[in-house]
Amino acid sequence: MNGLQIPTQLLIIYLLVHLRYIGLIFSSPVFTAAMAPAPFRYIFAVMLTASSIAVINTDMIPTIYLDGVMTLGALAVRELFIGLALGFISALPLYALQVAGELTGTATGFSMAQVMDPSSQTQTSIFGQLYFLMAIWMYFHWNGHLIMVRALVESLKLVKLGQINFLPSGDLSIGKWLQELFILAVRMTIPFYCALVLSDIGLGFLARTVPQMNIFVVGLPVKVMLGFMVLAVALPLAMDFIFTKFEHWIEFALAVLFNWK
Predict the structure, then answer these.
(1) What are phi and psi of 63, to 5 degrees?
(2) Helix residue ranges, H only, the chain
(3) Which residues 6+ apart lie within 8 Å of 105 measured at CB?
(4) How far apart are CA 6 and CA 14, in angstroms?
């Protein structure tokens, strides 16, 4: 079994790193929107790969052996899955904000009016779209795209290229990922539910004291106004809360990828 020649080996390494970037970009919610066309995402992956090759040290460059097309295909699929896992797992705060927006819209009654989301081309609530757009804006404001590129470069040190282990050796912690997704979404939705419960109690007392009043007609605008008031206070706090979670989940994603070493 002979090693590849140096020019061919460098080309293979470039393609493997490029596949890892493709998996990262095509799984990140920032670039999976319909407003970012696939050719743009691919060219962006090419540019990121070209800029990252210079920072790869000699200890990251393995001696790749090629027995045939099947071996190269297994290496390519492995790198693609690593990029997909890094982009998907580390984006948990963005998904949590989107779920919190949907829960908030259901609690305040805004889920009855579904709008077309131009980024995903699907029907969504107004609050869900607002939370997701705010999350994308804060993602770039906090240089999340730069942190993700650094995380992928770090993954080259943790999970070296050229190793044919298609499946991870440990647990991918999918259960913990789903648990934290639900917990973060509920924690950002609790202020709305508490405010609405208090408003229902107040409307109940009002209905008992003034039975002539149509409480259903009065209750809807009261809940809408209360929802906007709570949103003005809770949304900045939710963004500050999510800010503390970005680096944690990037580190968590790298720890999960370490199972592929």
Answers:
(1) -95, 105
(2) 6-27, 38-52, 69-90, 92-108, 126-141, 144-158, 174-209, 215-257
(3) 111, 125, 126, 127, 128
(4) 12
Q: Residue 113 has what DSSP assignment?
A: S
Kind and range of the H or E element at 123?
Answer: strand 122-124
Q: Which of 17, 20, 221 is nearest to 108 (CA)?
A: 221
Going from the C-alpha of 167 to that of each of 78, 225, 229, 252, 259, the distances in angstroms are 8, 52, 49, 18, 9
- 104-122 burial, b at 16+ Cβ within 10 Å, e below that, comes to bbbbbebbeeeeebebbee
Q: Report how far residue 226's alpha carbon sits from residue 149's, in angstroms, rounded to the nearest whole number.
A: 41
Global pTM reads 0.75
Give pLDDT tens digits for 84-133: 888 888 888 888 888 888 888 777 777 666 666 666 666 777 777 788 78
Straight-line distance from the first to the last Cα atom of the chain, in angstroms, rounded to the nearest whole number: 23
At 67, the pLDDT band (50, 70, 90 cuts) reads low
The residue whose two tokens read 């090419």 is 46
Residue-wise pLDDT for 8-17, tens only, equals: 667 777 888 8
Q: Tell me the angle at which helices 215-257 and 144-158 cross, rounded to the nearest 10 degrees.
A: 30
